[in-house]
Amino acid sequence: MTEVIILCAGYATRLYPLTKNRPKPLLPIAGRPLLDYTLDRLKGVPGLGEMYLITNHRFVTHFQAWASGHKEAQIQVMDDGTSTNEDRLGAIGDIDFLLKRRDVRSDCLVVGGDNLFDFELKGFVEFALKNKPALSIGAYDCKSLEAARQFGLVKLDARHRVVEFQEKPANPQSTLAAMCLYFFPHSTLSRIAEYMGSGENRDAPGHYIQWNAKKHPVYAYVFDEPWFDIGHIEAYQKAEEEFRAKAKSR
Known about the structure:
Strand order of the largest sheet: 5-4-1-6-11-8-12
CATH topology: Spore Coat Polysaccharide Biosynthesis Protein SpsA, Chain A
CATH superfamily: Spore Coat Polysaccharide Biosynthesis Protein SpsA, Chain A
Largest sheet: 7 strands, mixed
Shape: globular
Number of domains: 1
Order of helices and strands: EEEHEHEHEEHEHEEEHHEEH
Radius of gyration: 17 Å
Strand content: 25-35%
Distance between the termini: 34 Å
CATH architecture: Alpha-Beta Complex
Structural class: alpha/beta
């Protein structure tokens, strides 16, 4: 069994006023909450177990209401206790929060709640299982050095092992964007606590991947289909436009 962690505790201040009173993962995309698309794809992955959604105190009732409409998924919504962007735990801090409160005994598939994609995850999980006990991440070729500046980037060797990581560089050396999509084998989960004690950045999960890649093998599965990181209003508008057009063509 693989347990699922969906990260939804951010405050998305760059999308104000859209996210002033609504969490980013629940913004509408072609008439559906963004998170619905993620859940659709998770349902297509065999062997998934417990599903945890970590959010903040400010938006916990929003996610509880959403989860109540998806009872078949049995999503456990967890409140990390924060109420403002200033006291947020950060992505890695939230995973640490979960691991201290749940007896997780399986591998973990970690998904960012603001990732929007319409492709299957089965291939990624199969790739990750094959590369255990190493960590695996999802990557997307944005095909433009200009566009690459806004993402954490990876360079890979012939076996798709991560050999270099850059966090939003001014001069990109790669166009492969690291998605907020990770497979953490159970044997690696103890590294979260080690990282938390290291003084490294707890917010952007790419820093945790970079820290790992310096010490341990990390592999990347490259997706070809479109992926959107809803980090600003323009990205949201583009995603809404493309998914609405796709819905009309079906």
